[in-house]
Amino acid sequence: MMFNPQSSESSMLTSRETLLSTLETLPDALFVVDDATTIVYANARAQTMLGTTQEALVGNSFWCLAPHLVSTTLYQAVLKARQTRKLTDVEYRSPVTQTWFHAQISPTGVGLAVVFQENTEPTQCQDALRHSEQRYLGLLEHSAERVAMLTPEGLILEISQRPLTDAQVQLEEVIGKPLTAVSWWSSVPHAQRQLCAAIEQARQGVTVHFEARIYPHPGRYLDLAVTLTPQCAANQQVEYLICTGFDITQYKRVEEELRTVLDTVPQFVWIRRPDGSVAYCNQRSHDYAHMMSEQCTEDELLQQLPPAGRQCIQGMWHTAPRTDITHDEAVSLQFVHPEDRERILALQRQALETGKPYEFEYRLRERQPDTYRWYLARGVPLRNEERQIVQWFGTCTDIHRQKQTENALRQSQERVNHLMSSSVIGIFFAEGDVVVEGNNTFLRMTGYNRDELCRRCINWGNFTLPTSKPSLFQQVHQELVVQQDTTPFEAELVCKDGSRLDVLMGGVAFHGEVLQGIGFVLDNSARKELEQRKDHFLGMVSHELKTPLTSLKLQTQLLRKQLGKQGIYNADTVLSRMEAQLNMVTRLVGELLDLSKIQAGTLEYAQETVNLDDVLQEVVDIVQQMQTTHTIVVHRAACPPLLVGDKDRLEQMLLNLISNAIKYSPGANMIEVDIKASEEAVTLSVHDQGIGIPQEQREKIFERFYRAVAPHQRAFPGLGMGLYIVAEIVKYHGGSITMESEMGKGSTFQVTLPLKRT
């Protein structure tokens, strides 16, 4: 029989029509898809199930056009049938219609044939699977988070109810659609690009984390922490993706509020990612970086960085967009002091490797070249519940003034240490009456050791003489309380072995719960010994000179009388001058003798009732006869003042004051003396119109051997003992002496003496 092509073709067409007619009458829905899951054929039951026509289905993706049938279970079964090329059965519930389906997937020449049967009667094993599937879908539906199951291309296979509620859309509107195309992602281009990039990375087998702000519907936004996790088959091929989104809106709001606050603080504040790259810098950091970046280009910036820092910054620039933060970090490194760069980079790398907090100081340049300020940098890791580092939080605080203070304190401490190590000055610290610290010189002076000092066994009372008058130390204590320092004073300390040490002391006090003070002690024994020897010498010389002077004075007086008897009167003038000079020398010798007695504490005073007015008149008469160049004017009190004292010493006091007034008033011709009395005291004032006393010398004029004259005024005679003796006589009588002076207009000395001695 010969072959008839036309007959064969007609037979094939008839057979195909018969097959299609058979498929159209099947009670189950049938889809034929190619290897790309594109629909090639859908029978009448399938068209009815999806509510569309053959023409609308053919040529389109099964996953996009069959939302009522799509599920992750079905997707996995299709992948399995495609890979094994074997018949695969699966039973699942539709997420959209909640209808149970039994799907049978068979390989064909063009791809796969998928047959769906509804409401199948389950076997016992299938019933268990249905319950498991139902629990899984219920968990997905009621999940508080936003979860979606995606194909590697990003098509939605299943999705939890939460994002649908957020966007106010139905499940069937999104199943089978690209996640990037749903409204809450497509309405935010930046977030959509983030998601596209993340899906592309996830389909390569990489788990991706990122944060994004989406808008489920106008007027409401959500900040999500999104994770895309790939799920792989046994052959390591990615089968599907799990996309989870955690709502961090409240956290981001708090973070934004925190950043608003951080932008107002004067410190540099930054947040780093776990890899060390900077995620956030506050406004202070940006302002500094932008201000300093104006001074150099990026190439100049990189050239000035150390190799490790240069590689770090270049790596960030090559792997991330050129953000202001990256540039700020490079600028900050570039303007770190060259000596500090390698150190801080090493410390930061060490912290990232160990996960331990760090703290270091470094110098950062200011706008002026070669001018740096000190900063304190701190960094602490922030960890999640699994103790993984999610961020690094750091601050940089300006500590330049603190460093200057520390430097000043260090220099001060060095000076104190040098002072404390002095072998000349003894230094001690006291709290109340207890000596708590002292240098070696102080311990050597007093005979105590450091162990006794540490045990606080040294008390100020140990140094005080039992018979000493307490007035001196009471006065010193009062000065410390009121003035917080005291003028240097001489004292005698009792050492540990009972010996006595003459010292010159001074100190300062600090007020607190307990009066604290620093004392300075200078060994004054050599000076005191020298003064004693000098005073002894002066006393001895005074005694030795007094006898021949007295004899010479008597001989001069006798000679005058004898010459007068012989009628030789022209020698009287010469002898009177000789006698005046002898009186002056006798007076000087007497003052030297008194001075030595005062120093030795042996100057004697008589106790008698004295009419001070009569004493004053006698002194004025004597001086007036000797000094004819000045007139002494006396202003007396109404009632003659009487006091108990030594008449000769009071006469000596007045004679010295009036003689001094005449001596230092060479250009004047009058001295005024006032005497006034009250019920308690008598006041004597001696006023001259002389040269005056400079301000800086007024506190010293009552010291022995001190003369308040300038070098060009050395013509004034005297040894500087008169006012010292006057002050001692006044002191003995319980009185006080003061002085007022004006340069070129004269001085006034005022003595106040009590009428009744206590």
Automatic annotation (TrEMBL):
Pfam families linked: HATPase_c, HisKA, PAS, PAS_3, PAS_4, PAS_9
Record field: catalytic activity: ATP + protein L-histidine = ADP + protein N-phospho-L-histidine
Listed GO biological process terms: regulation of DNA-templated transcription
Domain PAS: 15-61, 254-355
This protein's record includes keyword Phosphoprotein: yes
Residue ranges occupied by any Histidine kinase domain in the UniProt entry: 540-757
GO cellular component, as recorded: plasma membrane
Enzyme category, top tier: transferase
EC numbers, comma separated: 2.7.13.3
Entry GO MF terms: histidine phosphotransfer kinase activity; phosphorelay sensor kinase activity
Start and end residues of each PAC domain: 208-260, 358-411
Keywords: Kinase, Phosphoprotein, Transferase, Two-component regulatory system
Domain of life (superkingdom): Bacteria
CDD domains: HATPase (cd00075), HisKA (cd00082), PAS (cd00130)
NCBIfam families documented for this protein: sensory_box
Name of the molecule in the record: histidine kinase
Protein source organism: Ktedonospora formicarum
Species classification: Bacteria, Bacillati, Chloroflexota, Ktedonobacteria, Ktedonobacterales
